[in-house]
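tokens incoming
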């Protein structure tokens, strides 16, 4: 099957936001493929000091949530700030599984797609402040950054997962 962007337009997604939606759907597919059957024992390993697969999965979900919040001109909630602080850490009381993190990312992509469908293209150039400092961006700037940032982390996650599987063949 061709990559998502070669499968045609997505219904109800405004034309100018098609590339964002395509990237997010591609990311979801690639993560599901790369992490199918990924061992929980490798989730927090950091080969050569790089970020763990668990971090990437938590970060991908969290950053989409945060950037799309800013695109709506909303401030982050205490729950979102707590999730940011927890990125990269396993919950020792209730260990996190790869499948649960993959499912959380897939659900966040669904939320992002719903927001893209509801976005009026005339709002794309509107100013949006980012973070506590209110750094300047626009709706389209945030949504585009969400797509490119997501794909950058998918690439890193993919390499890390493959390196870990190769180094630990007994844990497949």
């Amino acid at each position: 099957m061709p990559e998502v962007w070669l499968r045609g337009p997505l219904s109800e997604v405004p034309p100018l936001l098609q590339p964002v939606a395509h990237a997010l759907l591609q990311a979801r597919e690639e993560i599901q493929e790369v992490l199918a059957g990924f061992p929980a024992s490798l989730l927090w390993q950091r080969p050569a000091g790089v970020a763990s697969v668990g971090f990437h999965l938590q970060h991908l979900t969290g950053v989409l949530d945060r950037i799309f919040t800013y695109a709506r001109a909303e401030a982050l909630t205490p729950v979102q700030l707590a999730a940011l602080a927890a990125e990269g850490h396993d919950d020792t009381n209730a260990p996190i599984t790869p499948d649960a993190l993959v499912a959380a990312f897939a659900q966040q992509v669904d939320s992002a797609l719903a927001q893209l469908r509801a976005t009026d293209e005339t709002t794309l150039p509107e100013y949006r402040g980012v973070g506590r400092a209110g750094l300047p961006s626009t709706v389209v700037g945030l949504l585009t950054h969400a797509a490119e940032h997501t794909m950058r982390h998918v690439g890193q996650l993919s390499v890390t997962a493959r390196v870990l599987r190769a180094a630990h063949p007994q844990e497949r």
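note: The domain at 4-38+50-171 is CATH 1.20.120.450 (Four Helix Bundle (Hemerythrin (Met), subunit A)).
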